[in-house]
Amino acid sequence: MLSERRLEVLRAIVQDYVGTEEPVGSKALTERHKLGVSPATVRNDMAVLEEEGFIAQPHTSAGRIPTDKGYRLFVDKLAGVKPLSSPERRAIQNFLDGAVDLDDVVGRTVRLLAQLTRQVAVVQYPSLTRSTVRHVELLPLAPARLMLVLITDTGRVEQRMIDCAAPFGDTSLADLRARLNSRVVGRRFADVPQLVQDLPDSFEAEDRGTVSTVLSTLLETLVEETEERLVIGGTANLTRFGHDFPLTIRPVLEALEEHVVLLKLLGEAKESGGMGMTVRIGHENAHEGLNSTSVVAVGYGSGDEAVAKLGVVGPTRMDYPGTMGAVRAVARYVGQILAES
């Protein structure tokens, strides 16, 4: 275990390197931080930190920079989450409060996160697998054509056209709409198939075929939409960090283009617990293209249950306390909007 003083030296190195982008020397550390010891002692502490793999020396410099292991210790032990200022919180609220629907909420959240953190923002749409049904609407378009509209508790709206084998009367349609909603409203998607399986039997023989068609379309919609969707913003922010990526930024951009990779990252964050925050640093990211980045992600949703994840991807040399604070604050506001919508 590192002594308190060496942890303080590591904290100072991380803060200085993140702030200045320059490798950090012992003289600069003693000048900038009240460490209460001589430069010689700090040099000795830095030698121990380097031996233990928490800092490293770039070839061209006398100073040291944190390693992935050093950043991990910093995040786990040394970094608090930096609270946002009142103006920042108001700005988040004002920006998100203007959203008109779920697509707008997600779009605004991505832009906001990218601006606040100056990193790449990633927002996952609320997962239908963790959603409940708010309402099912059935609209007549022609005698034998209907539109099914599925509305979730998180504000997602899915529409499907249904061609029926025979005309379906207004009375039958109103009856089906009422019975369907009485069974599925407020229920989880996973429970819906069981709740509606015997519904066709309660209709007249000539209507059962259409009722079955409507139900199979509804169930297909539930299954199809378990495929997750994401929105990414602020990719151009990475160009400000060109020298933070060894050789080239291309592998990072290629990884960001693969939504499957990002969903897996957010999925891994999800497994580590509901609304909790996950920070994955450098080589902790399984995808090789993201080995020079860190991912900060957190769940959002109404109540204690996350319906999806949002987060940022940036270089390992990031302001972890500030980024963690921004990601957490934005997630809370999005959760409140979903709860009120």
Fold and architecture overview:
It is a single chain. The protein is α+β, with helices and mostly antiparallel strands. The protein is 46% helix and 17% strand. The protein has helices at residues 4-20, 26-32, 39-51, 68-78, 86-97, 102-117, 170-184, 192-196, 205-224, 250-257, 259-271, 320-340; strands at 55-56, 65-66, 120-124, 133-142, 145-152, 157-163, 230-233, 277-281, 293-300, 308-315. A five-stranded antiparallel sheet has the order 7-3-10-9-8, sandwiched between helices. A hairpin with a 7-residue loop joins strand 9 (293-300) and strand 10. Helix 1 (4-20) crosses helix 3, helix 5 runs parallel beside helix 12 (320-340) and helix 6 packs antiparallel against helix 12. The longest helix has 21 residues, at 320-340. The two termini are 49 Å apart. 37% of the residues are buried. The model has no long low-confidence stretch (mean pLDDT 86).
Keywords summarizing the entry:
341 residues; alpha+beta; 12 helices
Please outline what is shown here.
The protein is an alpha+beta fold and 341 residues long. The chain has twelve helices and ten strands.
Layout of strands and helices, then pairs:
Layout lengths: L3 H17 L5 H7 L6 H13 L3 E2 L8 E2 L1 H11 L7 H12 L4 H16 L2 E5 L8 E10 L2 E8 L4 E7 L6 H15 L7 H5 L8 H20 L5 E4 L16 H8 L1 H13 L5 E5 L11 E8 L7 E8 L4 H21 L1
Antiparallel strand pairs: 1-2, 3-7, 3-10, 4-5, 5-6, 8-9, 9-10
Helix pairs in contact: 1-3, 1-4, 2-3, 5-12, 6-12
